[in-house]
Structures
1.
Amino acid sequence: MLISESSQNRRELHSHPARSLRLAAACFLAAQLVFLPVASAEGDKPAPASTSRSKVPTPVSTNDPVLKAMQNELSRATTELSKSDQPPYYLSYTVYDQDFVGLVGAYGSLLSDTATERRFADVTMRVGTPDLDNTHGQSRSSGVTSGTLPLGSDQDAIARVLWELTDREYKRAVPALMNVRTDSAVRAEEEDKSPDFSKERPATHMGEADAALFDRSAWEDEIKRLSGAFRKYPEVYFSSVVLQVTHSNSRMVSSEGTTLVSPTSSTRLVMEAQTRADDGMDLLRVETFQAPNAKALPAEAELTAKIEKMAADLGALRKAPVAEPYDGPALLSGRAAAVFFHEVLGHRLEGHRQRDEEEGQTFTKKVGQEVLPKFLSVVDDPTLHEMAGVKLAGAYQFDNEGTPAERVDVIKDGVLKNFLMSRMPIKNFSDSNGHGRNQPGLMPTGRQGNLIVTSTQTVPEAQMRQKLIDEVKKQGKPYGLYFDDIQGGFTITTRQLPQAFQVLPVMVYKVYADGRPDELVRGVDIVGTPLAALTRILTTGDQQHVFNGVCGAESGQVPVAAVAPAMLFSEMEVQKRAHQHERPPLLPPPGFEAMASPAKTTQAKAEVKP
Amino acid sequence: MSTLHHKLVFTLALAIAPAAPSLRAASGDSKPAPDPAMAAAHAAAKGDGLLEALLSEIDRSKSQLKMDQVQPPYFIEYRVNDVEEYSADADFGALRQNQHSHFRILRVIVRIGDYRQDSFYARGQGESTILPLDNDSIALRHQIWLATDDAYKAAGQSLAEKQAELKRFTSDANPIDDFAKSSPLIAVEPTVSLKLDEAYWKKTLEDVTNLYRQYPDVQLVTASARFSAVNEYLVNTEGTVTRCGKTSYSVSLEGSAQAADGMRLSRSPDYVVARSEELPSHEALLTNAKQMLDTIVALRKAPIVEEEYRGPVLFSADAADDIVASLVGQNLVGRKPQLGRPNRTTGAFATSYKARVLPTFLSVIDDPTLKDFQGKSLLGSYMFDSEGVKAQSVDAIQNGILTNYLIGRQPLRDFPASNGHGRAAAGMAAGPNLGVLLLKSSEPQSPEDLKKKVIEMVKEQGLPYGYRVETLGSPGNTPRLLYRVYASDGHEELVRGAVFNELDTRALRTDVIAAGNDPLVSNRPGGIPTTVISPSLLFDELEVKRADTSKDKLPEYPAPPLKR
C-alpha cells in the first residue's frame, strides 16, 4: 500500500538508514524491477472462448513451443490428478519471459550495465470447491508455486520443470485445504460468507509483440551524459539516472480453457537527485518517464532541462526553512491529489479488503452512500492507455487471473458504487471486474490500475492559487500550503493500527494571505484519516495530471497510474517529517576542492504552478 | 615468520617503501605535512586511473577529514574489487540462466583512535559502495568521497560506543592492540580478465544435462558454470599500494533422485581451477556426469544403514578434505572474540595454543605462496592479502601441536602481527582466513595399505565389515558415497541413509591412526577462495548410524513423456 515514483524500497532494502546517500540503492531498484509484470500496451478486444467446466478444454492451436508445452502439461496434470483423492478444480500455468536491460549512471559514468534474460512460471492450483478451497483466508499463498524455467524452446525441458512445479504445488495445496476445513469448522462464522473463487468466462487472446529495437550503446552514452549533468551541482550529493528497458511476454493457460499470450514492452527512465540540509534532513527529487519503448522517451535536451530544474529545486530546498505542523487550507497539485486519492481512497476500494476481517473496512458498508463531494467521480480504467498526452503505467488488457480488464465506476457523483475486484468474491459482488493483479510468484488480489478522478466543479487551473488565498482569508489564517510535487505515499488499512495515510510531498510552498511572495518550505508530510480528509475538498482545477508509479501491497509490486486535477482542501493537516541527523559531507565534493562549504546556488523562484 | 620465498614473476613494480610508519599521533591536530610515504605510492599508481583516484581521495581525506569533538582518522584504507563474472545454468538439456556481470565494489575503512584502541567496532568496520566501471576520475572520486564521509562519521560513533561497552568490563592488565602495524607494501601486478568461450560452455552444460533422457529414475540433472576474474586494488594511509588479480573457473554438476521408499539422494561434484585450460573437456565432463548419474541409480537400490556401527572408517582424500576444512581449517582461523571475552580466539581451538589438536604424525601448514600442487592450480594462492600484507607460509600445527593461528591485522594474545592471512570478499571487511591449507603425515601410507588395514582391524574385532567413505555432502559432513568393506574378501558394497556420529575435533585428535600418501587438491570457490589439501585419513573408531531424515512422497504422477 505504497506508491512511489522511484522505489520506496530504496530505504527498506537498506540495512542502514544513515546510508541514504548510497548509490547501490539504484541498482537494487533496477534488479527489483526485473520481476515486475509490465502493463500491456495493445488495444484489441478479447474474444471469449466458449468452454464447459466439466472437461479438459481443447487447447488453442499454436506454433509457440512454450505454449504447446504448457498446454500439454496442463492437460496431462488435469487428467492425472483427477485420479487422485483430492483432484484440483482449477489449475493454471503462467509463464513470464523477461528480457531486461538496466543502465545506472552517476556523475558521468555507468555504475551498472546489465542485460538479463529470464523465464519463470507460476503454477496456480485450487483444491476443494469454489465455495471453500485451499486459498481461503490465511492460506492464500498455498495457491501458487513458482520457479524458473529453461530459456529457449525445448518442450521436453519446459514440460519437465512444469511437472515438477505442479507436483510441488499439489503437495502444498492439499494439506492447506485440510487446514482450511479444520479452521472453518473450529472458528466462529465469518461475516462475509462469499465463496473463494468466482466463476468467469475463459478468455482467449494471442497478442502481437511490439518489435522496437533498443540501441544499447547509444543509450549507454546518453545515460552517461545525462548523469554527468549533475556534476555541475556540488550540493547534489547523490544522483543517479536509471534506464530500465523490459520486453516481456506472459503466457497463461488454465484448466478452464483460458489461453492468453500478452507480449508487452516498457521503458522507464528514473532520474533521482538528493541533497542533505545542514540539519541532516535528506531531500530528494525524482523525475520518472514511462514509454512503451526508449524512442518514445523525451529528447535529451528536455531531460537535461529537467535535471537543471531538479538541481535548482534541491539548492532551494536545502536553504528552505522547516515547516511547522499546520492545519488549514491547502492546495494540492494534480499529481499530489492523484497520489492522495490512490492512498486514501484507492486502496480501501480493493475488493479483498472488504471481506478480510483484519481489515479496517472503511467503505465496506457504504455502497450507495455519499463518500465524496457530489462533484467528484472516480473510475479505475486499465483499458485506457494515455491521458493528457501521458502514457498510463497502469494499463493492461487482461489481469493476472486472465480476466479482461474493465473500466469500473467506483464512485459516481460522490456515491460509492463498486469495488476493484479480483476473482475473490465479496458480499454483493460475486464477479471479477478484471482487477486481480500480482507480481509473479504471489497470489493476486484486487488492485488499482489507472485510478482517475474527475470533477464537475472546476475553476481554471490558473485561478486555483487565488482560490486558496480566498479560503485562507475566510478562515482568518496567515497562510495556506501549496503542495506542488510529491514523491509518493503510503496508507494503513488494517484494524490493529490507526486508519491513516501519509503523502510525502517534496515541493511545498507557504502561500501568504497578505500578498508576500510564496515561501518554499521543507520537511512536512500530509497526514490524516481517510473519511475526514475526503469530505474537505472544496473545488478542483480543470486539467487532469498523471502520476505514474509502482505500487506495493500484499500481492507485490505492480505498475499503476493515478490521475486527478488540482484540488483545494478546506483543511489539511501536515506533520514534521522524521529524518536522520547526520551532517552533510564534511569535505567539498571532488572537482570542487577549493570550496569551503557546501555550495550556494541561486534561490529557485517560488511561484505557484498547479 | 617465514619470508616471502617466491619470485614475483609478473610483478611490474615491487618496492618496499621505507618502513617509517606514516601515522600521526591520535590527538594531533597540527596541520599535516605532505607525506613522503605517499610519494612512492603515487609513483607506483601512475597510469592506473582507479588507483590514482583512490590515492587522491585518500590524500584529501587523511589531511582534511575532521569533525568537531571527533579525532581525525589515524588510518584509512580503500579496497576495490573489480569483479567480472559469467554464470550459466542448464537443466534437462536446456539453458535456464546465462549471465555476464561486471561491477566494482569499494570498501572503505576509516579508523580513529590509535593502534592500541580504535573505532573498528560495529558500524566502524567500514562502508561499502559501488564504483563506476570506467576510470573517470570525478565519477570515481565522488563515490569514494561519500563512502569515506560515512565511514568517518560511523567511526566517530563506534569508538564512543566501544569505549562505553568496555566500561562494563574490568580492564585487562595486558590489553591486546586493536590493529597491528604493518610496513608499507608497493606491488602493482598486471590485471586479469576472463577467458571464456561462451558458446562452448552453453553447449557443454546443455549436453551434460541432456543425459537425463538416459536416466528416467533421476529426478533432477543440473550443470552450472561460474567463471570469475577479480582484480583487487588496495591503498592505505601507511603508503601501501597493491593490485592483483585472480581468476576462478568452476563447473558443477548436480543430480538427485528419490529411492522407492522416498529417501532423497543426491550428488554434486564440482571442478574448480584457477586456470581455464585445466577445466575438464566436454568429453570428460560427459563421462563424469554419467558416472555421477550411475552412482545415483546405484544409490536408489543400495541398502539402508539400519544398525549402528562402531569401528574403523577410512576417509578417502576427497572426504578428508572436507573434514580438514571444517574441523581444522575453520578452527585455526584466529578470530578475536567479542569485547570483554578472555579467550584468545573463537572456535574449538580457542584455548588450544601449544596443545595437541591432532595425532603426532600429522602437521598442518597454510602456505598461500604455493601456486601449484602436483600440476594443479591452487585457488587459495595469493602473493599479498586483502590488507596489503605479504603472504606467508605458516606452520599451524607441528607434529600434532597447535603452534600458530592464521591471522590478519587484528592481533590476538601472543600474536601481535599479521601473518598475511587477512582476506576479504568483495565489499566486505577483511578477516582472518585460510589460503592454501596443507595437511601432511610423517608416515604416509598408500590407500591400498590403508584399506588392508581396515580389513585387518575388522577381522580382529570380529566385525563383518568396515566402512570407507568416498565423498561427503554439505552441510554437516554427511556421507554421499559410503561403502561397506567386507572382511571376507575385501569387496565393497554401496549403502545409503547413514550419518557419522560425533565426527568432531576430538575424534580427529584421538581416533585418526593413519594417513595416506595421496594428497588431493580441493579448490573452494566463493567470496574468499581457498584450497585445502589432505590425504586419506583412517579412523580406528567412528560411529556410523542411520540418518534421521524424513522420507518424502514420490511424485503424484509420472514425468512427462519425452518428445525428442
2.
Amino acid sequence: MFGTIFDKVQTLLSRTFWLGNFFPVLVFALLNLALAWIGIDGFSAWLALKWPDATVLSAVPAFGLIAVGILGFVLAPLIPVFRSALEGKILLPPPWREQLRAEFTAKAQELHASVRAAEAEFAFFDRLTTRAPDRFRAAREAQGARDDLNRATYERAMRAVGLLMDEVRRTQRTYDARLLPHDLVTAAVEGLEDALRQYPLDPGPANPVRDVAQALGRAQGEVQAAVRGARDIADRTLQGVEADFRTSYLPTDIRPTRMGNSRAAMEQYPSVAYLADFDFLWPRLRMVMSKNDTIRSAVETASAQLDFAVLMTVLAGATAIVWLVVLTLFGDSIVLYFAVGLFLPALTIFFYRLVEESQRAFGGVMEMAVDGLRFELLTALRQPLPPTLEAEQRTWRELQIALYSGLGVNVRFRHPKS
Amino acid sequence: MNRLRLLAMGAWGLAFLVGLLVLVWRTISAEPVQFARQEMPANHFVRRMDLSSPMGADLFTGKYLRRRVIRGETLTQRDVSPTPLLPTDAGPLLMMSTPVASVGTTVEAQKKGEICRDADAVAAAEAVAIACDPPDNSGTCHALVRAASAADTKKLAERLVKDGPTTFWFKASCK
C-alpha cells in the first residue's frame, strides 16, 4: 500500500523536486538520525521508551518520509537564498566581500594574461606554419648562392634541427604536451633556410652534395611537421584557457566567490550573443521549453543537479556545525567527534566543488536552451523571425526595453493567421 | 590559499580543539551513566545485557539495584549496591544453584519458584537475591531463597546438609 502511495506521489512531483530537494533532505535526515543514535547516549533507549509498540514503530518510517517531503518543500524556495549565500551576495561582511573580490580580480587578470599569452603563442606558431614552407621554398629557389658549398651552414642547420627534434621528442609526445621554445624553432627554421639557400633542391646522381640535399629535405619535412604540431597544441591550449576564462569570470562583474563568478559568466552569454539579458530571457524560455523534450529534460536535470548540490552543501555545513556543538555538550564518543569534525567539513567542501561544477554544467545547458529555443520564444512573443543575427539582436533589445520600460514604439507584433 | 580560507579553517580548527578538550574533560569527570534496557525489580542482579552501553558497564555489573527501574530509565552509581538490600527481618534463607540461562527472566529477585531435586519439586520458594560469578552468562549463578515459612526453610536446610547442596536447584518450575 505504501508503495502505491509512493508511486502516486511520485507522479505528482517533478524530478527536480525528488533529486534537488527530497533526496538531500532524506540523506541528511538519516545522517542526523544515525549521529543521534550513535552519539547521544540513551537516544535509542529513549526512542524505544517513546514507541515501545511495534505497530506504532512500523509507521514511523512512513511518517518520517512524509516529514522529509514537507521539509523538502519548505526548503525549495530557500535554495535561491542558499545559492546567493554561496555566491557571496549575502551573509558575507562587506570588508571580507571586498577582499575576496580583490583576490578574484587578481585571479581573473592572471587568467586573462594566460589567454593573451596563449593567443600570442598560437599566433606565432600559426604564422610560422604558413610562412615556414614559403620561406623554405623561397630559399630553394633563390639564385646566386648555390656555388658556396661550405658545409658549416649545413651542419649548423642540422644541429639546430636536431635540438628542435630532441625537444619535440621530449615535450610533445607526452600526454601533457608542451609548446616548443620559440628560440629553438626560430633557430631551426632560419638555419634550415640558410642551408636550403645553398644546396640544390633535387640533386642529380652526379651531384657531390646529394646526401646533404636529401638530409635537408628530410629536415624540412620534420621541422614543418613539428611547427604544425606546435600550432595544434597552441590552438588546444588557447581554446582551453579561453573557455576557462569565459566560464569563470565576467571581467566587468567580479564577485567574491568562485561560484558567483561562474554564475556571472554564465549569465553574460545571452547578452553577448543576442543582446538579451539573462534575467529577461531565461524565465520566458520556460514558456516554450515544453516544445522540445530534449532541451526540457536537459534543463530539468541540470537544474535539479544544481539544487541538489546547493542543498547538500548547506545541509552538510549546518550538520557539521550543529553536531560539533551537540557532541561537545552531550556526546560521549571521541571517535564520533573526530569523524564529525573532520569528515563533515570535507564533505561540505566536496559538495561546494560539486556546486561549482554543476553551475558550469548548468551554464552549458542554458546556452543550449537559449540557442535552441530563442526563435520559438520570439514566435511565442508574436515577433517576426529575424533574417540576420544583427536583426535578432535589435529585436531582443527593443523587446526588452519595451517590456521593462513601456517604451514599445518600435515593437510590432505579428499574429498568427487563424 | 587566500587569507579568508585560512581564517575559516583556523576558526573551525580552534572550535574543534576547544570542543575536543571539553568532551575529554566531560568524559573523564562525568559520573558514569547507563540506561536500563528493560524493567527490573529492586535487588535485581545487574548484568551487561541489562545496560544500554558496554562503555563503563563494569561499574554496574555484578551489583544489585537499590530500587525498581523501568525501561529506558537512567542509572547512576547511586542506583546500585554491591550487596542485595535485604530487610532486617529476613529470617532464615537458603543459597542454592540456579540455571544461568533463567537468571533475569524467570528467575529474578522477588519472583516465586520451586526448589527442585531432579524433576521433582521439593518446596515452593521465593528468590530474595541472585548472584552470578562472573556477572554474565559464562559462569555459575546462585539464588538466595526463602521458603514459605521459617520452619520450612530450616527443614530444607537440614535436607541440603544431609543430601548435599549440589542435588538441589532453584528454578521457576521443576518440570
3.
Amino acid sequence: VEVEVDTLTGKVDVLNVHVGQDVGKVLNPLGLEGQIEGGVVMGMGYALSEEMIFEDGYLRNPTFHDYKVPTARDIPEISFYPVETNEETGPFGAKGVAEAPLVPTPAAIANAVSNILDVEINSLPVTPEKVLKAICDKERDQG
Amino acid sequence: MDFYTVSPQQQQKLLEAIKQNQGNHFRFGAGYTDLILELQMQKQDDLTVINLAKLKDKDFTSINDSKEGSRIGALATMTDVLSNESLQRFPALIEAIESLASVQVRSVATVGGNICTASPAGDVSCALVALDAACEILDTGGKIRTVPIAEFFTGVKTSVLKKNEILRSVLVPHRKTTDRIVSGFIKIGNRNSMEIALVSFAYYILADSNGDVTSSGAAIGSVAETIKSTESACEFLMGKNIEHLTKTDKGKFADLVLEYACPISDIRASAWYRRQVLWNISRSIF
C-alpha cells in the first residue's frame, strides 16, 4: 500500500493498494474484483477507524454513528493482480477469495505508516490520535 | 415516536402556530436530519412539531444580496448555499458545507437548523461565526431582533432563542473589496465524509495590496461548550503583513486561538489531541 500522513493531524490517507492473490479458478471475473475491493476496504476500516470501545463492560459505540466504517470518499485506487490456479478441493477448481485481502491490509497500512514516520504503532486501529502522539513523542525525544 | 404536527404555509400562520403552542411542548422541524434521530433516542410525550418544510415565505427560504450583505433564509438548504453564486466569495462557508455529512443530507439540511441545533460541532455555524454573521430573529408579534451569531449560542444545544421566537435569516455582512483573502474551513475527523468534527477551525482574513491585514475573523468548533470566536487572536493579526509573518507570530496566533479552547476527552478523541491539533492547524493557515 501507499499512504500519506498529515503530520499536523496524524490522519492517514491510503492512496494506492496493490493486491496479488491466488484466486483458484475464476468463475465470475467482475464478481471477483468486487470481492477483492470489498475485502481491501474492510481491511482499511480495521486498520484505521473501526473499533469497539468498552468501558466498565458496556460498549460505548454500539451504532454506526460512532463505529466508523470507511465511506466512498476514503477509498483509494485498488490495483488487482489475480493469479489463477486450480483448487482441487473446491467446486470447478474455484476457491473463496474475499477474506484474504482483509487480513494483510491492516499490517501493510501500519507498516507503511511506520516506514514514513520511523515510529512503531503496535495496536489497531491506527487512529490520528495514536499517530500524532507517536510523532510528538519522537520530536520530544530528539529534542 | 409519536407527535402532533402543524404545517403552516404562510408567515402569519406560522406565528399563529407558535402563539397557540406557547403552553405546549413543541419543536421546529425543517430538514429533520437531527430532530428525528433525537426523538428516536429520547421519547417525548405530547410533543408538537411545527413543520417548516411547507412554509412558502421568501424571508425564510431565499438567499438575497442587499446593501448590508448576503441574507440567507433559515430554511435555505446547504445545497442552496453551495449553488448560490454570490456566496462563493465566502470560502469558509462553502468549505464548511462541503465537509458537512453527505450529498443526501446536504440536500435537506437547512442553515437555520444547523444554527438552532446549537451543537458545538456545527460546521456551518462555525464558519458563520468567523464571518461575523448576524442572526435575525422573528417573534410572534412580528418584530425582528438581531443578535451577533457569536452571542447566539449559550451552551451545548442551547441558544438565546425564546419560546415565542424563531430564527428567520442570517446576514453575512459585506466587506470592502480587498486584494487578498485568506479564508477556509478545516475540519478534523477520522474519515472524509459523514463525520462529526473532532476539531474545526474557520477563518476569514482580508488584506490590502501590501498584504497588511485589514479585517480578520476566526472561530473554533468542537473544543468548547459552544462555538467560539477567537477575537484576541484576530486582533493580534490586525495591521500585520500576511506575507511576512514570522514563525513566532504564527505561534503566538495559535497560542491565542488555543486560549479559547477547553475541550473534553470522549470516545472520539482526547482533550490532548484536540488541543494539539487546533494549535497545529491554526499555525498552518498562513
4.
Amino acid sequence: VLDRGARRAAKATRVGRAISIAAFDERARANLANDAAVARHDAAAWSLRAKRDAAARDVPDFEALRTRAAAIKDHVLDHLDGYLERFEERAVAAGAVVHWAPDARAACEIVERVLREGGATRVAKSKSMLTEECGLNAWLEARGFEVIDTDLGERIVQLGHEPPSHLIVPAIHRTRAEIAALFERTMGAPPGETDPDRLMRLARADLRARFLAAEAGITGANFAVADSGSLVLVTNEGNADLGTSLPPLHVACVGIEKLVPTLDDAGVFLRLLARSATGQPISAYTTILTGPRPGGALHVVLVDNGRSRLLASDTHRRALRCIRCGACLNTCPVYRRAGGHAYGTPVAGPIGAVLAPAHPSASANALPYASSLCGSCTAVCPVKIDLHEQLLAWRREAPALPPSMARAARLAAAVFARPRLYRAAARVARLAWPLIGRRSARNPAAAWLASRELPQHPGESFRTRWLRARGAPR
Amino acid sequence: MNARESVLAAVRRGVRRTAAHPGPHLVPSLDAGFDAFAARLAGAGGEARLVARAALAREVETLASAWADGGRVVAEPSAAAELAGASFEIARDADPASYADVAVAIARGAVGVAENGAVAVLGADAPHRSLLFLAERVLLLLDADAIVGDLHTGLRALPEDALRHHHVTWIAGPSKSADIEQALVFGAHGPRALVVFVVA
C-alpha cells in the first residue's frame, strides 16, 4: 500500500499509469486548439534546432565526435558494472558517501534519510531529469521538506504547479505574459511587468535568499567520471554551483548510465552537449566536483530505476547513450506541435517515447505511435541513438494501437501485400482524393484531418511514370 | 541482497563485454590565438582584454573599482599575489555565505580554450568557490600562453593534481538564462559580467 507521499510521487511522474494513444491525442489536441501557441512553440523549438546546426558546422570534427561519443557510451554500457565499482571506489576515496537505488522509491527514501541525518529541511535543487523521473520533489514536500527548484525555467514550472515540458527549456510552453502573471501572483511582481530581464531579476532576488538559507543542495550530474570519482555539472545559470558551494550538504542523484571512464572522455561529450542543446560551444559553467566541499558532505545516489532492464535489451540499450540534450525534441515535428505535456512522461519527445515503454509499469505504453518515423531525431542525436528505429521496434514489441487503428493497419497490410489490389485501390484513391481531404463532419477521416492537411497527389502513380519512361525511346 | 548488490547484479545481466573503448579523440588543429578566444568569449557575453604584465595590477584595479562603485572587491589569494600594489580585500573567510554582497571577484584562471571562450579555474587557485558565483561581476587572470585551441587539449593541460582538489570550474562568460521566451538575459543567479585579462 502506497502512503500519501508515494501516491503523490507516482502521480507526479505518471508512474503506474499506462499511457494510451488516446490520452496523448487528447492532450495534444488541447494544445493544437491554440494556433498561436502552437506556432510559437514550433518556432522556439526550431530556432534551437537551427542554432544546433550552425554550431555543428562550426567545428571540423562534429561527426567524428558523434561517432566517438556513441562508441564510448557503448563501451561503458558493456562494462558498466566495473565502471560503477570504480566510480564508487574513487568517490569514496575522495570523501563522498555512495548509495545505490534500484528504483525511484529507493532513491527518494535515500535522499530523505540523508537530508534528515544532515538536519536539512530547506533544499535548493538544481535541474535534474532523474529527480523528475523519481518524483523526488513531491516525495520530499509530502514529508515536510521545502524543495526549491533554482533553474529559472524549473522555478517557473514549479510555481505554476506543472511538470517541465522540455529537457533544456522547462517552460518553453509559457509566454512571457503568462510568466509575468505567474510572478505577479507568486512573487509580487508589478502588474504588467513582462520584460524578461526584470522578471529574471525578481526570481534571482527571491532565489538568492533561498540559496543562502538552504541547508542542502540537490543536483543531478551530467557525467560521473569513474577514474576520479568526479561529478560533472553543466549549467548556464550557475545555480548548481551556488547549490553546491553554499549549503554544507550536497546530494547528487546520478543515473547509472551517466558514467564515463575518464575526464578526457567527458571532453568528447562536453564538446557535443551544449552545441546539440542550444548551439552554444559550451555552457557558461562546467563544474568538475571531486569529493565534498571543505567542511561539507557529499552523498552520491546511483539510481537504476529501469536502466538495467534497457541494458539487457540488445535493441533498446542504445537509448542509454542519451545525454539529455533535447536535440531530438527540437527537431521532432510531433513534439513541436503537440508540446511536451502531451507525452505525460518526465522526458518528452522522441527520446521520451523511447524511454517510457521500458518502465516496468508501462506495459501498454503507446507513445512510440506518437511519431511520423521521419528520422529527423536520429539525424541530430549527438550520441547516434537510432531513435526512429527504436520507436518502430517498440511498436513491434508492445503493440498498443486502439482497435480501430489496428483494423486499419491490418487492412492496409492486406492491400499492400496484393499488387493488383493495391493498384486498383490507388486508382480509386486518386479519383476520390478531393473527397478524402474534404473538411466535413460526414467525412470518416474528419478527426484525422482536424490537425492535418492532405498533400497534393502527383496525378499519376510512380509505376505509370516508370513504365512510360522505360518504354520511351532514348 | 542489499541495494548495491541488486543493482550490480541487474547490470551484470545486461553487460556484453564486447565494445572496446575507441581511444582518445584525435583533435583537429584549431586556432589557439587570443583573437579566436576573445571572439568566442564575446559570443558568450564575456570580454577578453590583452594586457602587458607590467600594467596588469593597474588595469585590474581601475576596472574593479569602476565596477564596484564603493562595493566589496574580493580577490582569491592566488590572484592577489600577482596584483602587487593594488588594494583589494583578500578572500580568507571559510564561510561561503560571507561573500553574498561582493561586487567584484578576482581569481586566477589556469587554462583558456579558444573554441568556446572557457577558462578553467582550479580549486587550488580558488578555494572560496562561492565567491565566483555570488559576485555581481568577475575578473579572471589568464596567461596568454595558457590558451589552447580545443577543450580536449584544455582538459589535458590541467595540472595532474587538479582533481585532487574539490573543484575545477570552466567558466565561459557570465551567468545566463533564456528560459523566458528564449530572451537571453545575463546574471540569472551569479555574475552579470565577466572580463578575462589575458596577460602577454
